[in-house]
Amino acid sequence: MSVSPAEVAVVPDTAMPHARLVGVTRVFSRRGKGEDIHALGPIDLDLKRGEFFSVVGPSGCGKSTLLDVLAGLATPTSGTAEFEGRPIAGVPAGVGAVFQEDASFPWLSVTDNVAFGLRRAGVDPAEIARRVDYAIGFMGLRGFADAYPAQLSGGMRQRVCIARTLVMQPRLILLDEPFGALDAQTRLLMGDELLRMWRETGATVLLITHALDEAAMLADRVGVMSARPGVFIDIVATGWDAERDSRIVSHPRFGDLTGHLWERLRVESLKHLREG
Amino acid sequence: MRSALGSAVVVLVLLVVWEGLHLAVSNSGLPSPVATLVRLGVLLGDADFWRQAGETGRAFAAAVVLSTFAGIGLGILLGMNRTTGAVAQPILVNLYALPKVTLYPVVLLIFGLGISARIAFGIMHGMIPLTLFTMNAILNMKPVYRRSAAVMGLTPWQSSFYVVLPAILPEVITGARLGVSLCLLGVLIGEMFAARNGLGFVVMQAMERGDMPSVLAVALLLAVLALVVNAALLALDRAWRR
Ligand SMILES: Nc1ncnc2c1ncn2[C@@H]1O[C@H](COP(=O)(O)OP(=O)(O)OP(=O)(O)O)[C@@H](O)[C@H]1O
Ligand SMILES: [Mg+2]
């Protein structure tokens, strides 16, 4: 049997990065009203298939902008962005995102929120019910399936958004400070949920966070960004095995790791503070 | 349920104040609530009165339907773009504040003395709040809703229908509540000043005769109608917000 070129392309090439950014910058034009804002880059980044990559950086350094580029919601001003070997133009199929702000739809119940994307995609109702039920259970929303977002806490609403993304079965999941509003302890527990989700789905995960311990505990690699315009000043491999959970915070190497990250970030955060 | 109760309280308070006024200015021509209700009963038994009410009802319904469609449509168009929104906002606010009665002669000149002039005048009153509320609802909608829709694979049309529409609906309903009562106001003013039919005309005729019970009976009827419509829209709003 002959193998056509099209079929060759479908076979996942493990050597190929799952997503690749080369020299990506993003500049916001102010159309003459003051200086243009150079928000990001140049960024070079290879996300390996199935890895958990975390991004830390001072506030306003361009982290969300980076996510927008990967999600196909913003085109790079220069450079190229690829997902699964194809240039990113528009939102690529197979990419899911949870944003920094609460994006749960207040007019829909938790169940309808989670089912939303699948219904629009015309997936078979039985299949929708199965996936939605699973995601709601997985995210610990079982008792709130019929509740509306207004009745939920901020953390629960973000879990609704994560469930809503999971049911679409994305191969690359982008998370932008999904637990930014939570207290430190709850955040660690939600981190365990994220690790469980990551292991179960086998998806590639990019998590933006401002919590160094969160990044150090969750990620295979942590990218440290400079103050705006954000570039990666360091990419640190954590070396944890895949079965990790929040208990590794007491591992002797954990302190070294967060210490190292903070050392790299301190100068950049000071810059941000001074420039306002 | 609670809005129905609220409406009932409003009616009751009005009745008490009214009776008080009637007693305070006795013989000055302000009929009592009872006299008014009796007159209303008589009017409701009169076929000609129903014909006049029907005339007002037709103009009102047409004005509501047209200003709802036009107002929401225009609001969506203006709200899709920050610049058009910024330009339209002050214009609409000023039009809203303008005493539109001064323009009624112009409306009459364009539409003649028939029902269409009253419909147009109703629309002039009712459309602006709907346009303003719809436009601002779209401009103020959280951008993350559309972005979420996009990453879930929705086409722009799908997000307009399944995300933007439900997101702006509560504010559109608020605009509609204002718009509907203003439509009624516009239609009635139109009937009062240049018409041979409609409830506005009935009121003007009664005034010329010095028939105060009839004037108040019509006012009462319209007040109840306005309260019922408002309560219905409020209920719709509540059901939507949950
Ligand atoms: N649409 C836009 N127009 C102009 N400037 C923008 C726009 N979006 C972002 N910026 C600017 O680009 C820079 C990077 O923004 P971005 O939101 O990516 O930062 P961030 O790292 O996610 O910040 P935070 O940690 O606060 O979430 C900021 O200075 C921001 O003000
Ligand atoms: Mg951000």
Automatic annotation (TrEMBL), chain A:
Classification via InterPro entries: AAA+_ATPase, ABC_transporter-like_ATP-bd, ABC_transporter-like_CS, ABC_transporter_ATP-bind, P-loop_NTPase
Keyword Transport applies: yes
UniProt GO MF annotations: ATP binding; ATP hydrolysis activity
Annotated family: Belongs to the ABC transporter superfamily.
Pfam family membership, one: ABC_tran
Protein name listed in UniProt: ATP-binding cassette domain-containing protein
CDD domains (UniProt xref): ABC_NrtD_SsuB_transporters
Alphabetic keyword roster: ATP-binding, Nucleotide-binding, Transport
Domain of life of the source: Bacteria
TrEMBL record, chain B:
Primary localization: membrane
Membrane topology label: Multi-pass membrane protein
Protein localization: Cell membrane
InterPro entries in the record: MetI-like (IPR000515), MetI-like_sf (IPR035906)
Record bears the keyword Zinc: no
TM segment ranges: 60-79, 91-113, 119-139, 175-194, 215-236
PROSITE patterns associated with the record: ABC_TM1
Domain of life: Bacteria
Domain ABC transmembrane type-1: 53-233
GO biological process: transmembrane transport
Cellular-component GO terms for this entry: plasma membrane
Key words, A-Z: Cell membrane, Membrane, Transmembrane, Transmembrane helix, Transport
Pfam families according to UniProt: BPD_transp_1
Family stated for the protein in its record: Belongs to the binding-protein-dependent transport system permease family.
Protein name: ABC transporter permease subunit
Organism (species): Rhodoplanes serenus
